[in-house]
Amino acid sequence: MTQGADPQQGGVGVVEPNHRPMLEVDDLVKHFPIRSGVFIKRTVGEVKAVDGVSLHVQRGQTVALVGESGCGKSTTARAILRLLEPTSGRISLDGVEITGMGKDALRKARRDMQIVFQDPYASLNPRMTVRQILTEKYNLLGSKVTKSTIGELLDTVGLAEEYADRYPHEFSGGQRQRIGIARAIAMNPKFIVLDEPVSALDVSIQAQIVNLLEDLQDELGLTYLFIAHDLSVVRHIADRVAVMYLGNVVEIADRDDLFDRPHHPYTQALISAVPIPDPHLERRRERIVLRGDVPNPANPPSGCRFRTRCWKFEQLSESDARRCIEEPPPLLQVGAKPGHDAACHYASLREVVRA
Predict the structure, then answer these.
(1) Dist. CA 75–CA 82, nearest whole Å
(2) Positions in the chain whose pLDDT score sits under 50
(3) 327 phi, psi to nearest 5 deg
(4) Intra-chain end-to-end CA distance of the chain, in Å
(5) Which of 62, 104, 276, 350 sits a CA distance of 20 to 30 A from 251?
(6) Rounded CA separation 65/44 (Å)
(7) Max CA-CA distance within the chain?
(8) pLDDT tens digit string along 301-353?
(9) Residue 351: phi, psi to the nearest 5?
(10) Number of helices (H) and strands (E), helices first, in the chain?
(11) pLDDT score, position 300
């Protein structure tokens, strides 16, 4: 048992380890320097790819991180795993802070945190067989491989052992992604980042991979951070959904609550674009079309970063609009249900026609 603060007693309380989030991300920042000059490179600015993201993922849960391309989803995921070094912030996995770990400690920690990349064609070494690719993982992390290890691993992801001595070019996209998943689960990790794992696959194959991921989560007790832009897939696999815009989380809630009762104008616009299979509902619903492009992350708007494209901002009085221009909205609880937070000064309920 670990000691923790008890808000009611004001002293030290007791927190059960199983109730602690598997992943805790607090105020994560990742800025990329912009350099100029021919002989002497000077830093003339920063691309604020991730700018203060806080996120908690409970044990055995799937949290989806969604948003437009370029909003910082993949950068957030890579910074969490320290594939990119964070500029600032705090990251803890299963109660152990990994933000300041040295190389040796981080190598050991990588047993517990893995990633499945988006492109199954680029993520596998074309000069290595499947057996060599999977064996390399064990060798890098200092574990032994028995004769049956690779066959059992391939069987877990739905591939035959006879495929172990083939090269990546001999497989389809879906099969390659299964190999990528096998590599990720090889060391029995606790937490896996899924960086748009089905976006490069045919629609018919996407469902098979999503079902495989759900089965593995149940069998192995995995915790997922699922990066995606396809909200239909997100609604199927996620327990909670966090919406990102221009480096910030603008809304986070349980899946059904977010899809049925979105509060942030950006979330409302995203959900309004999801097709509904019922033609009667499809005709009745109102679609929100955002105007303009995503602002430059090197020079984001002051105050609320979404205001330059916000349809609600255009309807505000001059005095109310000034608040959006001058004050960045904090991520606060909206509505009566705990766990639903939005970063909007004027968040309000807008019912969305259900699928």
Answers:
(1) 10
(2) 1-16, 349-355
(3) -115, 120
(4) 44
(5) 276
(6) 31
(7) 72
(8) 999 999 999 988 988 889 889 999 999 999 999 977 789 999 999 885 444 33
(9) -65, 140
(10) 11, 14
(11) 93
Note whether 154 and 161 are within 8 A (CB). yes
- Cα–Cα distance between 324 and 316 in angstroms, integer? 10
pLDDT reported for residue 127? 94
231: closest CA among 182, 190, 273? 273
> Is the Cβ–Cβ distance between 144 and 186 less than 8 Å?
no
Predicted confidence at residue 18, as pLDDT, reads 60
227, two tokens: 């990066």
For the residues of 119-133, what is the DSSP string, one character each? -TTTSS-TTS-HHHH
Retrieve residue 104's tokens.
């040796």
CA–CA dist 102, 164 (Å, integer): 34
Q: What pLDDT is recorded for position 143?
A: 80
- State the sign of the Cα–Cα–Cα–Cα dihedral 307, 254, 76, 68: negative
Residue with tokens 């909003």: 71
Cβ 254 vs Cβ 341: under 8 Å: no
The DSSP output letter for 148 is T
Q: Where are the alpha helices (DSSP H) in the chain?
A: 73-80, 103-109, 130-140, 149-156, 173-185, 203-220, 231-237, 255-260, 265-272, 279-284, 318-326
Report pLDDT for 311. Answer: 85
d(CA 199, CA 229): 8
How far is Cα 79 from Cα 77, in angstroms, rounded to an integer?
A: 5
Query: What confidence score (pLDDT) does residue 17 get?
Result: 52
How far, in Å, CA of 344 to CA of 316, rounded?
13
* Contact present, 280 and 294 (Cβ < 8 Å): no
pLDDT at 52: 94
